Input
Amino acid sequence: MNNVTVKVGTLFECESIQEHLDYTEKHFIYDPIWRQTAIGCTILCLLRDMYKFKFGFLLSRRDKKFFTTFYSKPFTRPVWNCLYAMAFLTSIIFYMLKRWEFSVVGGWHCSFVYESLVIIGGYCQHIPPIDTRLPSRRIAYFIFFVFTYIVYTFYTSNLLSNLVNDKDNEINLETLVATEYMRVIVDYMMRNIVERSHMYAQNYGAIFDRLMAMRVVTVVKGLEEVKTGRVALLSDYTTIYPYMKRVYDNDDICKLVSVDLFSGVKKYFHASKQFQYKEQFKIGTLRIKESGILQRIVSTEFEEPKCTKSHLIQISMQQISIPITILACSYVISLLILVAERIHYKRYGVWPYVEAEIGELSKQIKLQIRKDREHNRLETFEKFIKNTGGIKKAVKVLSDKTNWIANVKDRHGETTTKRVDILSIATNFYKDLYSSKNFMDNTELNNHEEVPLILEEEVHKATKTQKTDKAPGPDQIDNELLL
Output
């Protein structure tokens, strides 16, 4: 049977006349114009619904934390783990290099925490001041900072790319299958599939099996489950839009994503070779295409609930609650540390960190003194070996201490070498010496011969043995005058 073109025309606006259609009224039977208008409007409404009809999945985007899904997008999880491990390993290497430089040329402090801050500053491109003296540390820092600059460049470029091209809103059928969304189907569509199961099972076996495996829900229940962000509802959109306007608010509508199963499908007609209006159909189609009518019909938009939310990125308090909490805790900890420092200063009169710095400075001074002594000792030995060929005089010059009292005997005749005991014996001896009132001991002889305690010859001998060129005593008499 050949296809023919049926012309349909109306005399009134279909939108206004559609509300008054009643096929039971008698004027439908007797008035041909009204009958033509009613039938024409019905056909036009069917064609309009057919062009506007779209079919697919409806789902809601899940609420995700802003800082974990947005700022972590430029790199995958393995890349982030590699950067964390690299930061820890580099901190250890920098600390070891600092300790090496500390032992060679000295320094003020050596801290693993400070090296970790240098690593974090390198990743963020805000590097704290660094004092390096050895070329090994300079080369290590230079290579690491070049590496962090490259990483920072990749991060910022990928972050801007995600800002421009947000892939979360672009979900197709392949992406939906790969997600964890549970797929359900409305009840009236499942009834239609069951009624035509003999057709689907023959031509679309795998698809039919998947459709039959879906859970069946009502429209209202399906929309409620879509709001949870874990369910994708399979339905035609024109049926569920009126329910969406009643159930969803503006925020819920802005989260919706439509996966149209008819997107990208070409629209075409089949005609037999004996079609008598083939040429007229081609010419008419070209004219419709040139005039833009075909494009307007194909791209007809169905009425869907519109999202009135701004397209600008809006951050809620829930998204910034974590960094604000961390910042508040940091300030509280800083305040507690300040109070503890003030208490320590009032109690001991010195800041808690000054003692550690003084101890560190004392270690550095002792280390430098020991190094200077060793250097001076080597130079002295080298000098005397070149001049005299021996080290005896060098040892005498380098000897900076003398054992004045190596040992002493106490009043019981026992010898001691301990410095504390020697000081005690000497102290007691001089106490007894200066507290005694007997300056001279009288000796009684049995022969009754008067012999003075000090002979005149002894005085002359003692005077002659005095050395000259000596300073006078309290009486201002030199030894030269006595001689």
